[in-house]
Amino acid sequence: MFGRFLPSNRRLNPAALAWVVVVFAAIVMLAVQSSIAAGVYDAPVALAFGLTVVHAGTMPLSMLRPLFGAILSSCACAALPLIGPHAADAPWPWMVPVMITQIAVILIIGLRAHWGIALSALLGSIGGSALAAVVGHALFHLERTDASIINIMIYACIAGGVYVAAVIVQQWQLIRSQLLQEKENTAEEHSKRVTIEERARIARELHDIVAHSMSIINIQSSSAPFRHAGIDAGVAKEFEDISTSARAALTEMRGLLSVLRNDDSAHELAPQPKLTDVDELVDKARQAGVRVTLERRGEPLDAVLRDSTGLAGYRIIQEALSNAIRHARDSDIAIRIRSDGASVRISVTNTRGEGPTEAVSTEEHRGQGLVGMRERAGSVGGEIRSRRTATGGFEVEAVLPLSLTGPVADERRERA
Hints:
The chain has about 425 residues and is of the alpha+beta class. About 65% of the residues lie in helices and about 10% in strands. A 5-stranded mixed beta sheet has the order 1-2-3-5-4, covered by helices on one side. Helix 2 (about 45-65) runs antiparallel to helix 3. The protein is rod-shaped, with a radius of gyration of 41 Å.
C-alpha cells in the first residue's frame, strides 16, 4: 500500500516491511505485557519481564521457525498465569496483553507456515492456559472457576477465528500463486507451440519451393545426356557436376527439414562440413567457371578447431563465395584462411566484376547473407567485418576464436 506513493526505485520490500511490523509489535507487547503483569497482577518484576521477553520474542521467532515459535509460546501461556493469580478483579488465566500476543503469534504462523503448525499453536495455548487454571485452583485455592472458563472460552473463540482467517488467506495466496504459475506455464507452452508451428511452416515452404526446384534441377541435369544425344564429354561432365551438387543440396535440405520439424539436436546435418572441406567447395566453383583462389597460412587447424567453429567458417566462406558470384559477375575471388594459434581469420575478397546477375537485380530482400554470416560468427564467439575495397570490389572478413570466450562462453557454461 505504501509503495504506491514512493518512486519505482524506492518501493518497500514486503518481506522487510513485515519484519519491521512484527519486531515493532513485539517490542510494544513486551513493554505493555511486562508492566501489566508486574503492576496489575503483582508478579515479581524480574520474573514477569523474563517470561514476557520469551513470549513476545516468539513473534519474530515464528517468522523464522514457526514450529519452535508454536511450542515456546504454548509453554509461555502455561507459565504466565501462574506468576499473578491473586488479582481478583483482573482477567485470569488470560491477561489481555498475553492474549493479544498469542493471537498475533497464531496469525503469523497461520500466514507463513502449514495450517497444522498454526493449529498446534492454537490448541497448545488453550491447553496451556487450561492447565495453568487447574494448577492455580489446586495450589492457590482460587474460587474463580466460572470466570476462568469464560476467560479461556473468549480466548479460544477469538484465537480460533484469527486462525481460520489466517488459513483462508494463506490458502488463497497459495491458489493465486498456483494460478499465476499455470498462466506462465500456459504462456510458455503457447510460445513453444507457436514456435513449432512457425518452424513447420518454414519447413513446408522450403520443401515445396526449394527442395522441389532442386529435385527438378537434379532430374534435368541427370537425364540431359540421355535426352540430347551427341553432346561432347565436357558438357556431359558439367551436367554430372550439376546433378551431384543438386543431390548434395537436397541431402542437406532434408537434414535441415528434419531439424525444423523434429526440434531435436540428434537430427542435425551429418556429416557436418568443416574448413577442411573448403577445397572441395572451391573446386566445384572452378568447375562452374568461377575464377577463385584459396590460400592457407599458419598452423594446421585439424587438431585444435572445434566442430562448431569449423562449420561456421565453412558456411561463412560458402555464403561469401555465393554472394561474390551473384553480385559481381566474372570477378576474381580470393579466399584466405589464416591461423595464429588463438583465432582463425577468414577473408573472402572479390574484384568489381561486371555487376550483379539479373536475379539479384530484381530480388526484393537483400542483405540476408551478411546477416546470416554475422549470426554464424556470433554463435561461436566471433565477429564479421564487411566493406567495399578501394578498387570497387567487396571484402568479407571473419575472426573466429579457437577457444570460446566472452558472453557466449559464459552463457554456455551456465547452461552446462
